Amino acid sequence: MTNSLVISDSSSLIIVTKCGLLNYLCSRFKVEIPQAVFDETVTEGKKLQKVDALLIEGALEEGKLEVKAITAAKAKETRFIEKLGLGEGEKEAIILYLQRKAALLLVDDCHGIKAAKLLGINWATVPAIIVGFARDGAISRQEAMECLRIAQEKGRYRVDFILDAFRELEKTGGQ
Description:
The chain has a five-stranded parallel beta sheet with strand order 3-2-1-4-5, sandwiched between helices. It is 62% helix and 10% strand. The chain is an alpha/beta fold. It is built from ten helices and five strands, in the order E-H-H-E-H-H-E-H-H-E-H-E-H-H-H. Helix 7 (110-118) links the parallel strand 4 and strand 5. The model has no long low-confidence stretch (mean pLDDT 90). The protein folds into two domains: 5-124, 5'-nuclease (Rossmann fold); 127-172, no CATH class. Helix 1 (10-18) crosses helix 3, helix 1 (10-18) packs across helix 4 and helix 8 (126-135) packs antiparallel against helix 9 (141-154). The protein is globular.
């Protein structure tokens, strides 16, 4: 594991888990989520009997990722973020990213991406993470193709994110 801190929003964490990449992510980075992301992924997911909720909960119990509380944000920071039309998970993930001075924000919501760009946050989508894992040899090109298929099917990605990821994956060559 590196010391690089990654904060994830709910849907990114769910898609990473559905792709079978949660352990890869947690082995390469220190991964933290805010309480709202826990509530959306684990608490609500278990009510809906989602397998990914149990996998995320298991990773938390094993210490592979952590739930971190956000501290009272500066009024100016909070007012700005409140105006961006974000869900609670994205809002808390952005605040946690800023407060913890994280290296990367995993986000896939269009409003969350827009907010990250406005705030100068280093962000990535799950398709970009999949390509990065393939480039690094953590997963095979074939596994990456399957993960991108799952991300396309289960996620809410714009088609250009998926197509760009497939193009980047083609450049990696290999198996």
